[in-house]
Design a protein that fits this description.
The chain is α+β, with helices and mostly antiparallel strands. The protein folds into four domains: 55 residues; 89 residues, no CATH class; 110 residues, Roll (PH-domain like), CATH 2.30.29; 54 residues. It has a five-stranded mixed sheet, with helices on one face. A five-stranded antiparallel sheet has the order 9-10-11-12-13, with no helix packed on it. Strand 4 and strand 5 form a beta hairpin. Helix 1 packs antiparallel against helix 2 and helix 5 runs antiparallel to helix 6. The longest helix is centred in the first third of the chain and has 27 residues. The protein is flat. 18% of the residues are buried.
Length: 358
């Protein structure tokens, strides 16, 4: 359908100027008449070529148990290649948040993908794609990711904060402690007593508990920085008399109100921080819910499958959560923490669990 419409539009455009092009050729007025009319007719010629390509273009990917065969035919010629399945790195699961553009019925959505990943990205193969609202993850996304890895006997891959994680599909549901003991998961030893987690996180020892206190004030500091930048910009604009003095005075009165509001918010988060605690049996996560009530989630160490830093497919933000994945549920927190702090905290938790399981 698109090819037919393109051929009609392109042919109509070229036809409008055909007489002028023909007359300039007959009169041998190559320059400037012929070249000028040819230049004007070029968009129609390109549209015609696009229309023809829709009938000629052909692309096919065939996957067998041992090989991937790809071929393409178009106006520019034909290409093909064949690649053994064993040359692929693994089966990658990823999600991409898309902002809704002007005139679109939805403000944003998430695209869920599964791909066969090769060292050369031109040989990657798309196996699965689904679109969904931010709050709903396709029910078959994770299941098909595992099934494809088992079918092709390749590792499962997943994007995390510091690259791409790789593991056997059979290890996904194995306890983290067992993977550490068997050596399948290499853990960097970290001395908790010498660890500096960085901004907005503090480590303490209380009897047999390691306690990490997190202060979620990152967005507040960004708001404060934005207020300072706006104040400086308006001061410069006022100095050059590009804004009325009365409007500038109103803004100066508004600044203290914003500063007081930010101060109260900082005080609230500092006096009521979120906490993560770890002993020899479980991990505990303490936070305030939407009703401003304290809630404590606990997860036995034997039920933990992995600890990583990765983005949340059910949220549009790009910053990753610290994710503790368990048998029946996950603990996600700390997206507001700086990237280095989250990675240090992940390595610290893995190191403590490795020492416990030794």
């Amino acid at each position: 359908m698109a090819g037919t419409i393109a051929l009609i539009i392109g042919s109509g455009w070229v036809y409008l100027f055909w007489n002028n092009i023909y007359e300039s050729l007959v009169a041998r007025q190559i320059f400037p008449d012929f070249l000028m009319m040819l230049f004007i007719a070029l968009p129609g010629i390109f549209v015609i070529l696009y229309g023809l390509s829709q009938y000629v273009y052909f692309e096919e990917t065939t996957i067998s148990r041992n090989d991937v065969f790809w071929r393409r035919r178009g106006l520019s010629g034909s290409r093909q290649w064949k690649e053994p399945i064993s040359n692929y790195k693994g089966v990658l699961k990823e999600h991409i948040y898309q902002h809704g553009g002007a005139g679109q019925s939805r403000s944003g959505y998430t695209v869920y993908l599964i791909r066969l990943v090769h060292e050369h990205s031109g040989k990657d193969v798309l196996l699965y794609m689904s679109e969904s609202s931010v709050s709903v993850t396709p029910s078959d996304w994770d299941r098909k990711w595992r099934q494809y890895a088992e079918l092709f006997q390749l590792p499962v891959l997943e994007k995390v904060e510091n690259g791409v994680s790789s593991s056997d599909v059979s290890d996904l549901d194995k306890p983290l402690i067992d993977k550490i003991r068997s050596g399948k998961l290499k853990v960097e030893h970290v001395n908790p007593l010498e660890t500096k987690l960085g901004l907005m996180a503090k480590l303490e020892r209380d009897d047999d508990l390691w306690i990490v206190t997190c202060y979620p004030v990152w967005n507040i500091w960004r708001s404060l920085a934005g207020l300072i930048i706006i104040s400086l910009a308006l001061s410069i604009i006022h100095a050059y008399k590009l804004i009325s003095p009365q409007l500038f005075r109103y803004f100066l009165l508004f600044i203290p109100v914003c500063m007081i509001a930010i101060g109260f918010s900082i005080r609230k988060h500092i006096t009521h921080p979120e906490q993560l605690a770890l002993d020899k049996k479980s991990i505990y996560y303490r936070y305030r819910n939407k009703r401003n009530e304290w809630v404590t989630d606990d997860m036995p160490l034997r039920s933990i499958f992995s600890i990583s830093v990765k983005s949340n497919p059910m949220h549009f933000r790009s910053a990753g959560d610290l994710v503790i994945e368990g048998k029946n549920r996950d603990i996600r927190f700390g997206w507001w923490l700086p990237r280095k702090t989250k990675l240090r905290l992940k390595n610290l938790l893995l190191s403590i669990i490795a020492d416990i399981s030794a």
